[in-house]
Amino acid sequence: MKNDKGQSIPRATAKRLSLYYRIFKRFNKENIEKASSKQIAEAIGIDSATVRRDFSYFGELGRRGFGYDVKKLMNFFADILNDNSITNVVLVGVGNMGRALINYRFHERNKMKIVLAFDVEDNELVGTTSADGIPILPMADLNEKVAEAKAQTAILSVPSVKAQEVADQLVEAGIKGILSFSPINLNVPKDVVVQYVDLTSELQTLLYFMRQEQ
After folding, report:
1. Where is the binding site for NAD(+), in residues?
2. Rounded CA gap, 27 and 35, in Å?
3. 87-201, what's its fold?
4. What is the 3-state secondary structure (H, E, C) of the chain?
5. Contact, 51 vs 37, CB < 8 A?
6. pLDDT tens digits for 27-44?
7. Is the pLDDT confidence value at 11 over 70?
8. How many of the other CB atoms lie within 10 Å of CB of 74?
9. Which Pfam family would be a valid example here (predicted)?
10. Other C-beta atoms within 10 Å of 59: how many?
11. Could you tell me which of 190, 3, 158, 53 has the C-alpha nearest to residue 20?
């Protein structure tokens, strides 16, 4: 990710952008007009120096001694995260995780919406519609339906042995961003971005830190 000056934004900073956006939305809802770097840091659980360093990549977002304009920064991060327009997302893999994701109302929290779901034809849910009206379709329809939905983002929730094969099909269908719950590294073209969510690894990390505190 790069800023408007063409400078690369550190990955750690980029991963915090949605957290900043969430905090500024919360502050705005609480009618807080100005927030200091200390307030922002405490709300996220980091130090204020990190907040100031992160913000420095985007120019002058605030003034020393005056804090940060909450509404201005909320709108700023909304623009960066493209949350001013609806992002259509497709889901591949309607197993236990996939069903949970279908029922998670992304659009009530941000302007992201799962519009289509896909699975193999022997999944009994294929051919049905979720409670939110999301059609669950066979994999054979993926290329055609993704194009119709003008979706460029996908959530991948399939068994590891199928992940690369499905990722290849998503890339062929025009997908440019994949959120993968499969614990293997995917081989994709350079213009396709993959973000991994490994729940087992995250839980093991949590348990490790818990033991360190004992």
Report:
1. 93-98
2. 8
3. Rossmann fold (3.40.50)
4. CECCCCCECCHHHHHHHHHHHHHHHHHHHCCCCEECHHHHHHHHCCCHHHHHHHHHCCCCCCECCCEEEHHHHHHHHHHHCCCCCCEEEEEECCCHHHHHHHHCCHHHCCCEEEEEEEECCCCCCCCCECCCCCEEEEHHHHHHHHHHHCCCEEEECCCHHHHHHHHHHHHHCCCCEEEECCCCCCCCCCCCEEEECCHHHHHHHHHHHHHHCC
5. yes
6. 999 999 999 999 999 998
7. yes
8. 21
9. Put_DNA-bind_N
10. 10
11. 53
Domain extent listing, the chain:
11-80, 87-201
Q: State how far Cα 162 lies from the chain centre.
A: 22
In this prediction, residue 109 carries a pLDDT of 62
Other Cβ atoms within 10 Å of 55 Cβ, number? 19
So what's the pLDDT on residue 154? 96
Residue 133, by phi and psi: left (phi above 0), alpha (psi -120 to 50) or beta?
A: left
Strands 112-119, 193-196: parallel, antiparallel or unpaired by DSSP? unpaired
Which residues line the annotated binding site? 93-98
Asked if residue 62 has pLDDT above 70, the reply is no
Question: What CATH number was assigned to the domain covering residues 11-80?
Answer: 1.10.10.10
Q: Judging by DSSP bridges, how do beta strands 153-156 and 177-180 pair with one another?
A: parallel
Q: What pLDDT score was predicted for residue 107?
A: 57
The token duo for 52 is 């100031």
Residues in the chain: 214
Side-chain-side CA neighbours of residue 13 (13 Å): 19
Alpha carbon of residue 21 to chain centroid = 12
